[in-house]
Amino acid sequence: MNKASVLHRTRILVVDDNAAIHSDFLRILRVGPQRSSLEEHEAELFGDLDAPMTLPVVELDVELTLAHQGEEGVELVRQARARGEPYAVAFVDFRMPPGIDGVETIHRIFEEDPDVQAVFCTAYTDLSWKEIASRLSQVDRYLILKKPFEPVEVRQMAAALSAKWRHQRERARAHAALLEREAHLTELRQRQEEESRLREREIALRAQVEALRALSTPIVPISRRAVVVPLVGEFDARRGEAMRSALLAGIVARGTRTAILDVTGVPRMDEAMAMELERTAGAVRLLGAEPVLTGLGPQAAQQLVALGVSLSGLRTFLTLQEGVAFALRRHKV
Known about the structure:
This protein is α/β, with parallel strands linked by helices. It has ten helices and ten strands. Helices cover 52% and strands 17% of the residues. The strands form two sheets. Strands 2-1-3-4-5 form a five-stranded parallel β-sheet, sandwiched between helices. It has a five-stranded mixed β-sheet with strand order 6-7-8-9-10, with helices on both faces. One of its GO terms (biological process) is phosphorelay signal transduction system.
């Protein structure tokens, strides 16, 4: 017969109170060629120790552990699983006085390691199949092997159950990897959605900021050629730039010839505000329009003088009404 193509290292537990059974398992499950049952009988009858050898149907690479009582076997299963070196198959005798019987042993083994495959080894029928199944509901995880057993039966069961145990573990690992990948993809998708929401909020916030800036420096037309820009609150370079850009764009769009900058709502005239006014006035002149400053009170005027700012060349009026009247007269409205 042909030799198996691949050997898989398999941990097998034998729980039996009979030392002779331990010897049988050691002989049957050792790796290497074994005599067929017929050849073994011939050797026993005729003493032909040089009888031809044949390879077994399935080649096994077995690490075998032996236990004499059920409690001992259960503890070995628990320790092996804790070390991360679980057993694939457990061969368990049905009767092991004075300890627990095989059914109870396998029941406890399943509690310690729900993946292990089990085989009952018995020469007696103390319990019916129905009684065994009532105590062990996992009927797909154990088989019954009648004593005396053939070596090929033991080897075939060991190989088949080991392969089943190995495939179940491989499927479990593949399923766990799939779940992990799905979780990763879900997390990635959630992160992308959150980043998209943040970008949308950022865009909306920028739009709101721009809208507020536009509202903070409105351009109010008072005639076809004149506009008023009421300035309110504190001014810094950024806000001044926004105000200046809006005003210059409005001048070009409307063909404005007079731009009234009203500072009635500015609480104090500091150096930053004075510089913004000078820059804005110069830019307005470059577009061919005349800048007019209104609402500059006595305190603000003193602050400008203290700063050394003269605003020379910039027409000023005490009140907005006076500046509007000037613009209307100039354009004969």
